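Protein 1 of 2
SEQ + STRUCT:
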Amino acid sequence: MKKLFFVFLTSTLLFLSISHSTNANNEKRIIKTNTVKVEQIIMTIQYGDGFFTLTRRLFTAIGLDPTSVTWNHVLLLKTIYEEQKGYETLKVGEKFVILKSDFI
């Protein structure tokens, strides 16, 4: 009777350890990681710049075609500038930061 009990106990423990290791392996496969690359671009206002010119220069810096600039992109750049500076007039030499992810 003792032998039967020990066989049952060891087989149960063996089964539990195998099922636990299988669940741990499945959990390792489920975990996924995602990386997000955030790049910022510092724009400097030059003499004669307007928001359209700034947007074209930004597209060139990002690596997009500067001829594909739309008025929505210009409005977005103007909104970002106004939020950072508090006014909409461009002043030569001022710098402001743009996240690359906003335009892609």
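Protein 2 of 2
SEQ + STRUCT:
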Amino acid sequence: MKIHTDFSSRHLGVVGQDRQAMLESLGYAEMEPLISDAVPAVIRDQHVMNLPEALSETDALARLKSVMGQNQVKKSFIGQGYYGTHTPHVILRNILENPGWYTAYTPYQAEIAQGRLEALLNFQTMITNLTGLDVANASLLDEGTAAAEAMSLAIAGNAKGKVMFVSQRCHPQTIEVVKTRAEPLGIEILVGDHLSLDPASVVGLFAVLVQYPDTCGRIDDFSALFEKTRAVGALNIVAADLLALTVLRAPGEFGADICIGNSQRFGVPFGFGGPHAAFMSCKDALKRKMPGRLIGVSLDAYGNPGFRLSLQTREQHIRRDKATSNICTAQVLLAVMASMYAVYHGPEGLKHIARQVHQRTATLAAAVKQFGHTLDSVDFFDTIVVHTHGKAESIVAAALAEGINLRLIDADRVGISLDETTTEADLIAIAKAFGATISATAEATLPVAFVRSSEILTQAVFRSYQSETEMLRYLKRLESKDLALNESMIALGSCTMKLNATAEMMPLSWPEVSSIHPFVPAAQSKGYAQMLTELETWLAEITGFAAVSLQPNAGS
């Protein structure tokens, strides 16, 4: 008997006696005649594809290691919606690296997805609680597209105009994605300073989008602005930071109708920009037009509680061309990781992380001010922008020499976004780049107007699993309620009828893959550039297209 040890034999289809038995049951002795009969000659592609020779698993991993080894792993405090985070090892090993979680199928069938649905309900609960709104979905693709989806939701809920105002202090990539999505929809995007916005003077205004805290770290009180926008019938959209919301007022408390953002900093590495689970929450009146899957609780035939997909009449697999959502518009594995990060740390743990980040940011701010620099804002959480008297490039270069990436905004301004990975040594190195020293821990107090007074994550699930043993058991209980490819074939077909091979998942945990910020200098991401270019080239060759885009992605 021929021994098959190559990748395709182990992972794609059947081999040996099983394959021969299937062929014979169809009346064929070999595969080629079956293919000839099944695929008409007129549509068969006969040309030999210009692709490199296939490699074994071991050789492929070695080559990928060599390619990705060109990336330079440094500490990145660039911000713009992406922050360093520690993935708890119990989550890394038992979710991200566990086929019981990463090979499960899109949960069309609730009976075989109870574990994931419970984890995703935790995600929704976390989002509604932190944002202070009524309903949250079980994730979207990224913050930029979530903002674009919020725009579509707002105009669906308020079709009186076709003008949307976007604060210039939103993350630049978010502004660009919203502009791109707006153009074919005939929506006019006004980008400007929200502090000078008079909603009554904007004809056709249907929504306003602001960032909280903004891309330069400033915390603004939007209450007065939101009252004015509501007076003209427009909706208020807030792009928010989840960690900040553990200590800052919830957007729903100061007038937000929709809140979006990225859950990345809840335990999911940079990954050169993704994948990460975005989120969206909204007021109850908008829920039937909200995109993304919604998890709810129901009772089975015996009266036992169970989890199910709610409001499915919004979904494309039911309403087809009239749908307002697609169940696959999600990042499930990453949403599960983010929710379990909150479960594992609990409310007090999350607030401790947030306060520590703010404390270190305040200490750094005091140091650079003491040595003659000025700040863009005095009200901040984890991000400061320093005015450097025209020395921005040299300061960023000095930090890079210490192995640290900062954000070069322009010739005068440097942005610094700290996170839970920031150490005392990092503070000293950053201060050194500015010609400053860390002399003492500064007082860190948020302005009273912005301090959160409402409790967070009061549900029992967020207060019960702070030990690794209890967390491990909880994750195992959920996993056992789900059906994944590590237990059985899942005969549901469609886009995810495949096995994510172990060799394909392993590199996700490599530092040279996971620890690269999306906005690092190009010289630090040469491995990603080569890998992505090669993949695009190979896919174009296979499909016959001139070019292939690798975005957007989905984690159904």
